[in-house]
Amino acid sequence: MNTSPLFEEPGPRGRRRYRMFEALAWAVIIIVAGLAVWTLDRNGAFDAAAWKPFALWGVWRQLGIGLLNNIRAAVVGMLLSMFFGCFLGWGLLSKRKIIRYPCRVFTDVFNGIPVLLLLFFTSLVLPSWGLPLPDFWFLVIALSLYSTAVVGDLVRAGVQALPLGESEAAAALGFSGLQSMWLILLPQALRMMSPGLVSQMVIVLKGTTLAFVLGGYFDLLRAATVLGAYFSRSLLQVQVIAAIAFMLINIGLSQIASAIDRKEKQRYGVQPVALDE
Q1: Where do the ABC transmembrane type-1 domain residues begin and end (predicted)?
Q2: Taking a C-beta distance cutoff of 8 angstroms, is the pair 72, 219 a contact?
């Protein structure tokens, strides 16, 4: 395999220029960060009174309840996406056009529609169809529609990345096409694309914050807004705490995805499957 770089290594003058740009960039970052800290301090963001509410157990309890609701919606949405995404991936690989074309249309449509529009659709259209569901399910359905399209494409890419001999061996053993897919190809594809699935979980978790527009689902952002309205001096502080909570969970999930990625490389010596750019 050709591993030559796309560009030539910079010479001494190029390295000096890169170091100069790097130093300039760090200087700009430090100056901007310093101005931000100075402005926040000038407006009392670091005053003890602004952080006093966080000494109350009730504040952390409300934030915890909101975060658990975000996680609950993300887990349910991802499980539904995994279930329906496997069927969608099988449809995308079908040799029958009557199955493959509708699956491709579904994938392209729901990959291209913003999740916020899907959320408005579920919360406004479904009740008019006689389905007055709780806001939790409006959020889960919107996230599942989008994520199912992504998982379906991951399944398709994972199965197509497997050696052709896998399906040929299954056929030689007397497996039907459906049995070969669900008993042999799909389990291997799921293992290969596991880093992509964990990364998709990060996207789904961040998408749960869109429940704020519904107004009836008590997620972390809603909890932070309510607490910020009650403790008016702590509005910025509580939003920062909420952002840090999301950041820590997403970093943890990203680390899990990276660990799975490294494990798959060590096991197979290849890059796990990802969606085509």
Answers
A1: 67-257
A2: no
Same domain, 135 and 224: yes
Residues 35 and 107 in one domain: no
Structure tokens at 195: 């880093």
Q: Give me 116's structure tokens.
A: 């916020």
Q: How far, in Å, CA of 214 to CA of 178, rounded?
A: 41
Q: How far is CA 179 from CA 90, 148, 158, 170, 176, in A?
A: 11, 22, 17, 9, 5
Distance CA 217, CA 21 (A): 47
Same domain for 89 and 28 = no
Domain extent for 32: 9-43
Q: Where are the beta strands (DSSP E) in the chain?
A: none
33 and 141 assigned to the same domain: no
Q: What gap in Å lies between CA 270 and CA 267, rounded to an integer?
A: 8
Give the tens place of pLDDT for each residue, 126-163. Answer: 888 888 888 899 999 999 999 999 999 988 888 887 77
Q: Model pTM?
A: 0.79
